[in-house]
Each structure stands twice: as structure tokens, then as C-alpha cells.
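Loading example: each entry is read as two labelled lines plus one structure line.
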Amino acid sequence: MDKILKGLPVSRKIYARIKEQIAREKLNPKLVIIFVGNDPAADYYVKMLEKKSKKIGILAETIKLGSAVTQTDFLQILSKLNNDEAVNGIMIQKPLPAQIDETMINNFINPQKDVDAFHPLNLGKMLLNEDAFIPCTPAAVLEMLKFYEITTNGKNVVILGRSNVVGKPLANLLLRKDETGNATVTICHSRTKNLKKITQNADILIAAIGRPEFVSQEMINEGVIIIDVGVNQIVTDKDTTAYVGDVNYDDCLNKSSFITPVPGGVGTVTTAKLLQNVVKAVEFQKM
Amino acid sequence: MDKILKGLPVSRKIYARIKEQIAREKLNPKLVIIFVGNDPAADYYVKMLEKKSKKIGILAETIKLGSAVTQTDFLQILSKLNNDEAVNGIMIQKPLPAQIDETMINNFINPQKDVDAFHPLNLGKMLLNEDAFIPCTPAAVLEMLKFYEITTNGKNVVILGRSNVVGKPLANLLLRKDETGNATVTICHSRTKNLKKITQNADILIAAIGRPEFVSQEMINEGVIIIDVGVNQIVTDKDTTAYVGDVNYDDCLNKSSFITPVPGGVGTVTTAKLLQNVVKAVEFQKM
């Protein structure tokens, strides 16, 4: 096995599985994306998502809203989608403008259509190990581990970052009593003291802090497995923009036993997990 | 300050605060306890809870159900309480008989009356740091830390146990960006390897595994702060029953800088946090 854990073979497998299921069960899954404003990166992502969806048999529709949309109008649109039986999944593309209260939106979305798993009911069910949507990035990390047959049982897993969308849910998932769980989990963040001492003790290091190339060779132990969740836009020496992870890849490559690249690593799988949640939504709504 | 962190001064302060609030705001909080069967320990606890409630101005009513109660009947009773405006808090005394599906019950209780915070919506909101009920034992641990001015900021907190009611919620709470948060949190459990190496590195060790006197002197570092959440019934040499924690108290007393006793430690505060949640329920239902 190559030491570089690429996302593509993992996402391909997921897409094939979804496509096959949709065809076999004659499903008509529909995803609605709400896209506010005109952020170019977000626009690029939404278009890619529409294309991917079409390829595997999911109908993706994007509702574009002006960046001045009011909270009331936003909730009205969301309410309609919540109640529209033809809509299985709803995804709200971030960032949202300042006048939109993100917490209120996350609480308002129909939990059965919440393919991003930002609704507290879904996060609570995840914590309790009940059947629910799982946030896409943590789910992608687990999918990577599973695909590359990296066991977590009894391993020291160190997570850098305590966000609601990655660090915290991931910690809870890695504690489950299942094949991608049973890990001893340590969560570090900006307040952590002696960080190096902790990261050097990791069997698996998962970086999700949003700081470009933060993890360097001195911080890791020989043979560590590195999962890099970060995607940071930087300006290169040649004045072009590029994306790098939270890990200094070149610096850590030799010392690690396995490492995910950025781009081409976890991010690739995240989108696949999102679309898998759309099919899951169809199942939830049948119950 | 004494090195023994007793629960009584902490719970007294909470009870005084609740009593004062109830009187000042002229509240009539009502707690309904559902008690199935006739487990003597549970019966003892329920009676104590009724007495405590009365003392501070909470009306506590217990509904006793036979141990053969069906799931349907249970849900019907719960549904009535869910919709009864005079009922602010509902507490379901454990253990429940085998025919009752605990997960279904926890999902069915009105989240606004869920004073034990077992409903996934409350746990999800806790994870997201939204205003919600917090499970009573983790809340009691934080209350102990606060009362005794033990800071968690940047400290290595090691939690033994990954249960849904203590370990997992507590880990999430200790990661919050507040005065009882900002800790570096490690969660250990039965699958953890080199446990001693991890516990020896703890600034604060929280034991919640339900194994009598599991933590011994060799496992801890000089000066560690020990919070013992365990309550285990044992048979003594003299053939009487006694309650001990997850920590070998006598063995660890000298080496630790602070330690909570069992009984008389965290458990005392847990009940106070439950009753505080009843008052919180009144506030939630006013919104």
C-alpha cells in the first residue's frame, strides 16, 4: 500500500455504491442547495456538487438568494423546502451573510432533510449512537480509515481542533464501540499546553484547525498516521493562490507511515458523504 | 482549603440559589417522577428527592408504575405529562424493566421538560453550546470545579469512561470556551492501552467507569486533582454493604492535591443540578 492516502479511490467507491442503490431501488433523490450571495469559491463548489449529483442519479437544484436576503425570507424559503415532500435533502452553502442567524437556521431545518447534520437533534443522536445523519467531514475521516484498513481500536488518536463540525463530532465517533471507534481520544486546541508532547504520542494524528501547514516534523513521532482535514487558501511565492492543509506535508511525509494529501485527501470524500446522506434522507423519510 | 472536595457546601449553595429564585419570582415549579417497580435503592432516592424538592419550593409528584407496565401504557402516561402545562420537569427513575425501550422513551420525552437531559436534542444543543439542559452528573462535576476554584484552562483532563451520560457529555463541556472549559481532554476506556501512562500525565483525573476502587496510587501523578464520579455498591469484610467510588480513596489521598470523597462528593451535587434543571424548565416553557 502506498503511504499516501488518496481520497479519490474512497469517494469513487462511495459514488459507485450510491449510484447502484439509486438504480436498484428506483429512487428519485432530490437535493436542494441554498446559495446566498456570489462567493466564487462557493459558486465553484455548488456547480461541482450539481454535476456530481447528476452523474450518480441525484437531482440537485440550487436556489440562489441575493446577499441582502432577510432572515424572515430565508426562513420562509426553508420552511417551504422543509415541508415539500419532493425534497429529500437540504444543504445550505456557507458562508452566510451577517444578517442571517446561522444557529437559528441550523435549528430550523427539518432534521430528516439535514444532510449536513448541523441540526442539534442529529448531533445528539450521533452522540447517543442512534441512527442519524453524521456530519460529512468526520464521516469522511472514518471512511478513509476504513477504506485503508487503519484500525483505531486502542490507538491513541489526537485531534487538533474542537470545532462543532469536525473536532467534537469526530471525537465522539472515535469513541464508539465499532470498527472505526474504540480509540483513546485526545482533543487539543489553541489553549493546549505542551502540544508537541501530546502530538508526539499519537498513533493517529487528525488535524482540523484551519492553520496552514501548522503540523511540522518535530511535532510527530516516527510512523504516525496523519489525517489532514484542513483546507487553507494561501498565496504562493509566485503570487498565485494554492490550497494547503493543516499539516506541512513535505516536512512530515518521510516521518509518517501514512498521510493524506491536500487537496485530494479527506475533502474529496466529504462531498461523497454529503451525497450519501441525500440517499439516507430518502430512507429516513420513508420510515 | 481542605484537600477533600466535599459536595455538601456546593449543593447547599445551589439549593439556596434555587430556593431564593423560586420565592423571588413566585414560581410554582413541578417535577413529576416516573418510578417503575420497587427497587429499594431507587425508592430511597425518589423519597429523598421528594423531600429535597419540598424543602426548596418544588412540588414533586411520583407516579408509581408496576414492573409489568407495557411500553404503550408508559408512552401514554409520558405523553400526558409532556402536554400537561402544570408539569415543568419529568424525570424517569432508572432502572427500567426490560420491556421498556429506553432509547424510545428518551426520544419521546418533551425536550423542554427533559430535566435529566437524555433527549438527543438537548445533548446536541449541549455540544453546540446552545442554551439547553445539561446532564446532571457532568454539570455537577463542573459545579464542583467552579466552587473550589479549580481552573481547567489548558489543563490535561483525563476522563475514564465514555458513557453517554457522563464521559462523552463531560468531554464536550470541558472543551467549551468558558471558565470550566478550555481543557485538553483525553477520554480513556476499557480498550485504552498504556492507561497508566495517560493517567499519570493528568492534571485533573475524572473517573466515571463504575469499577470499584479502580484507580490506585501507581496510576496517578503527585499533585493530581481527582474527581470521582463512581458510586459502586460493595460488600465489606464485615459482610455489610457500602458505597465506594472508582478511585481507591485511601490509596490516592496523600498523592493527590485534591480529591472528592464517595459518598459525599459529586453525587450530592448531582441531585441539586437536577432540581436546578426543574427551575430552568420553567424558564424554557415561558419562552
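Chain A has a mean pLDDT of 97.
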